[in-house]
Amino acid sequence: MVPLNLNPVQISRIIEMAWEDKTTFEAIKVNFGLTESEVIKLMRSELKPGSFALWRKRVTGRTSKHGGLRDYKVTKAFSPSQYKVTR
Fold this sequence. Notes:
This protein is mainly alpha-helical. 48% of the residues lie in helices and 0% in strands. The protein has 4 helices and no strands. The chain has helices at residues 8-19, 25-32, 36-46, 49-59. Helix 1 packs across helix 3 (36-46). The longest helix is centred in the first third of the chain and has 12 residues, at 8-19. The N and C termini lie far apart (29 Å). 13% of the residues are buried.
């Protein structure tokens, strides 16, 4: 179930951030207020079953997705060039 206060653009951005290797679940929480379990629920509801399974396999145990397990040298979760401009 997708939280009611998220619009389609925000949902799209959360999905994009969840797929990115360097973006932590903590960064998603700061930006959108969703916990890791809520992101998983959102991904399950928004992705096709096969895509969800691939994503879960990809992020399970990945240290880059969890701030506490991340290398201290990584100081940011995004590149300034990653944001898309829509008109």
